[in-house]
Design goal:
alpha+beta; CBS-domain; 2 domains; 4-stranded mixed β-sheet; 58% helix; 14% strand; binds zinc ion
């Protein structure tokens, strides 16, 4: 199940994964049924649920404010933020690219916990100023105040990819000038902390009344250790591709056909004879006219094979995603991630075809380089 878009705020797309509803329900339920009745026994019955629901909604806003702070600072450094997603383990601001300098990384990472701590402090101050102990507003403000402060402090634990881990990475990166080693070290702390949470969770689960929170803690630990491992894996892939350009990996003699060839000849002379299912359509002057693939051919009724021409069924030039030969492979990978294509025609000015780049070609290189330890 994917995250559902709920709108935009400050130019950032906001999305909520359905698993967030689990959190919203758990918070509302535990406040309405346990905590508020225990702390404020004199409230009328319905009030517990109303205040609990409002508190849960404002908790949602608190997490959003935390993530939005990361996003706003990231954009200051001209990094694109594709979206903010809230899910069962909290929130994530999804950056399309990694910060380029340790200082940028540190400021982006610090923005979230700082905003949580400031919001928490302000809420507790407001609570104290109102001085209405025991009322619904007191209950709401003090719970949200403490939870925001906990959110800020928890995120400062120095295990990557938590905010504190990003701060640690930025510091090591600055000291040693090696981003990769810094990421690996900060991720090791993240993984160890994840294991610690799993251990603590299992221990708690066997204590009286601790089953639920124990399982919850262990799940968070498991999520963190996985995320730390994935971050290191992603970085080794990026590193193995550093300096490689589209030109180095493209097939410079791509399978191509002329626009006036008939569909029958495309099928009989090309598709049924070779390994290719997709062809560049090339003008006589070498310019790219379009792309034709098996799926285009399958839409043509058999009786029209002799009369229909490639130019009638191909995807035309302006609708095709192309790439230049001097683009870094990382850029090509991003394109492959964003667009549902398996190959990219490589063109230079005047849409002259110089080759094609395939997804599998990139994956092959990554595999070889990682196996060789390059
Ligand atoms: Zn954060």
């Amino acid at each position: 199940m994917g995250a559902v878009r709920i709108g935009r705020l400050l130019g950032v797309e906001l999305a909520v994964h359905p698993s967030w509803l689990v959190i919203a329900f758990l918070i509302t339920y535990s406040l309405a049924v346990r905590q508020f009745p225990a702390d404020f026994p004199h409230w009328p019955g319905g009030l517990y649920w109303a205040v609990a629901a409002a508190t849960s909604l404002l908790f949602f806003a608190s997490v959003l404010a935390h993530e939005l702070s990361h996003a706003v600072v990231a954009r200051r450094f001209h990094l694109r933020v594709s979206s903010i997603t809230l899910f069962i383990f909290g929130g994530a601001a999804n950056l399309e690219e990694e910060p380029k300098r340790p200082r940028d990384e540190a400021l982006i990472a610090a923005a979230g916990p700082i905003s949580s701590l400031v919001i928490g402090g302000l809420l507790l101050l407001a609570d104290a100023a109102l001085g209405e102990a025991g009322g619904p507003l007191d209950a709401l403000l003090s719970w949200l105040g403490y939870i925001n402060i906990s959110l800020g402090l928890f995120n400062l634990i120095p295990g990557f990819p938590m905010d504190g881990g990003r701060l640690l990475r930025a510091l090591l990166w600055k000291l040693r000038r090696d981003e990769y080693a810094a990421t690996r070290n900060a991720a090791t702390v993240g993984r160890l902390f994840g294991y610690f949470l799993i251990g603590l969770g299992v221990f708690l689960a066997f204590q009286p009344g601790g089953l639920f929170s124990g399982i919850w803690l262990a799940l968070i630990g498991w999520f963190l250790s996985n995320a730390a491992e994935a971050a290191v894996a992603r970085m080794s892939v990026e590193r193995s591709l550093r300096g490689v350009k589209v030109r180095d990996l493209m097939d410079s003699d791509p399978a191509s056909v002329g626009p006036n060839e008939t569909v029958a000849s495309l099928i009989n002379e090309r598709m049924l004879r070779g390994e290719h299912q997709s062809f560049l359509v090339r003008h006589d002057d070498g310019g790219l006219a379009g792309v034709v693939s098996l799926s285009d051919v399958r839409r043509v009724p058999r009786e029209s094979w002799e009369t229909a021409r490639v130019t009638d069924i191909m995807t035309r030039y302006p609708d095709i995603v192309t790439i230049g030969p001097d683009v870094e492979i990382e850029g090509a990978l991003r394109l492959f991630q964003e667009k549902p294509v398996r190959q990219l025609p490589v063109v230079i000015e005047g849409r002259q075809i110089v080759g094609t780049l395939t997804r599998s070609g990139i994956l092959g290189l990554i595999e070889t380089r990682i196996k060789l330890g390059v």
